[in-house]
Every structure is written in C-alpha cells, then in structure tokens.
C-alpha cells in the first residue's frame, strides 16, 4: 500500500472544557474525494480546522504524505500543500475577485499566476466576468466559487472544503459539486469534503466517514454508506 496523502491518528481537540474531537482516525489517498458527514456539532468543522492548526490538537497526529504537520502554524501547513475553503466562505469582501485570487496565490511561485488564473476562470466563468467587482457584492454561489478558486490558486495537494453547499439554491449546489468532480477528474485533486448535505456528498465522493460526538461512527465506500440503513435513517431521509 502506498503512503496515504493524509493520515489522521487518534486526533483530539477541545474548546476549553468542551472536547470536540475524541480520537479521530481518517486516511485519504491521493486522487480520492472523501466526505465527512454528520449532524450539527459532530465536530466536522473542528476536524478540518485543527488540520490547519486551529484549534491545536491536544492529542494524536496528522501526517501529510508521511510528514507530521500536527499543530504547525497555518501558513506552514498551507505551504506544505493544504488549502481550505472554510465554512461561511470567508472571502475578503472589500477586495476584488482578482485580489482575492491573488491572496490565494501568495504561497506559490508568481510565475504560475497567469496560468493558474486562466484555469480558475475557465472553471468559473462567472468569476472572470466579475473579476473587478468586490467580493462582498457577489451572490452566495459566486462567493462559494471564489472561495474554492482562491484555495486552488495555492496549488494544493489536498483541498479541504467545509460545507460548500451551505445556504445555496439546489441548482447552484449542483454546479459547485460538478466543478469539484471535474477538478478531481481532470487534475487528480484530492478532496476532503465536509457536508451536512449527506446525500449529495456521498454521491460525489468515493468514500465517506460519519462523525458523531467527536468520533468516527462509521466509514466505507459511498455506495455502502448510501445503502446503509443507519446512515439512511439518520442522515439521508428527508434529505
Ligand atoms: P456544524 O455543521 O454545525 O458546523 P460540526 O460538525 O462542524 O457542526 P463543530 O463546529 O466542529 O461541529 O463543533 C463541535 C463541537 O465543538 C460542538 O459541541 C460545538 O458547540 C463546539 N464548538 C465549535 N466551535 C466552538 C468554539 N469556537 N468555541 C466553543 N465550542 C465550540
């Protein structure tokens, strides 16, 4: 077996007395789309954030391609090839679309910028049309596209997406998920996707983990999880 691109072992993280992660194990191989599903408060966002250094894990290890990145500062983790599109998008509202994309590219060789920008605009033509508009004036769907495009500008090896479907109309969700599928298929981009929209996430991903109460409750291929009675009852029915 090859070394996994990401290996999380026994990860624990807390906010003061609240233990949000209670020993989480996850493995992702290069080229996979893996989703993390679970109810509100299960610890999904905390897992992605602690991979980027905040909150700092209290126990366990995070290995990127075999290298220990546990608790490193966020900028070092970014430079090592991890990019995140955080929950709530967090684009820079006063900066233009183009300036936002430049911010994503600060960790890469400037020689790549034009080529990477062209690729981002080919993926998201709306962003090209609106490149001189301030981020804060974009629609929710366009801001989500910008957040993903900005993350990709750092040429990551691992793309972390936290709830890209949050608050978006179904037609926009389908567009965003289609782009994630294309990025994976055409560039072999490895994606770790946190979603509350479990059905769509499992349809997109190759494998999934179910997080509950800060622990992995179940994991398996997307097809197995989609067919699993417990998963259906807890996360898919009515979805
Ligand atoms: P959601 O989909 O609602 O974001 P989640 O699965 O991502 O849920 P987390 O946001 O990781 O869950 O939260 C895990 C636990 O940690 C919850 O009990 C939550 O209340 C708590 N928590 C999250 N962020 C903080 C914080 N900044 N301070 C204190 N507690 C927090």
TrEMBL record:
One of its GO terms (biological process) is L-amino acid transport. Residues 6-238 form the ABC transporter domain. Gene3D superfamilies: P-loop containing nucleotide triphosphate hydrolases (3.40.50.300). The keyword ATP-binding applies. The keyword Cell inner membrane does not apply. It comes from the Bacteria. Transmembrane segments: none annotated. Belongs to the ABC transporter superfamily. This is ABC transporter ATP-binding protein. The lineage of its organism: Bacteria, Pseudomonadati, Pseudomonadota, Alphaproteobacteria, Rhodospirillales.
């Amino acid at each position: 077996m090859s070394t996994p691109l990401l290996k999380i072992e026994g990860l624990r993280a807390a906010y003061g007395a609240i233990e949000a992660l209670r020993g989480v194990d996850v493995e992702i191989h290069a080229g996979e789309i893996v989703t993390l599903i679970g109810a509100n408060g299960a610890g999904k966002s905390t897992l992605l954030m602690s991979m980027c250094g905040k909150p700092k894990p209290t126990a366990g290890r995070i290995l990127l391609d075999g290298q220990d990145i546990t608790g490193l500062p966020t900028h070092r983790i970014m430079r090592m090839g991890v990019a995140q599109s955080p929950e709530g998008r967090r684009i820079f509202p006063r900066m233009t679309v183009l300036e936002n994309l430049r911010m994503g590219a600060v960790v890469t060789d400037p020689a790549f910028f034009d080529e990477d920008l062209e690729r981002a605009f080919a993926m998201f033509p709306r962003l090209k049309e609106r490149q001189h508009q301030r981020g804060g004036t974009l629609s929710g769907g366009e801001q989500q596209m910008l957040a993903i495009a900005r993350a990709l500008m750092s040429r990551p090896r691992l793309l972390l997406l936290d709830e890209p479907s949050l608050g978006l109309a179904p037609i926009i969700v389908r567009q965003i998920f289609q782009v994630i599928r294309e990025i994976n298929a055409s560039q072999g981009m490895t994606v770790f996707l946190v979603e509350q929209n479990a059905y769509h996430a499992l349809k997109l991903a190759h494998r999934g983990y179910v997080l509950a109460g800060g622990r992995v409750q179940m994991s398996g291929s997307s097809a197995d999880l989609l067919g699993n009675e417990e998963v259906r009852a807890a996360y898919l029915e009515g979805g």
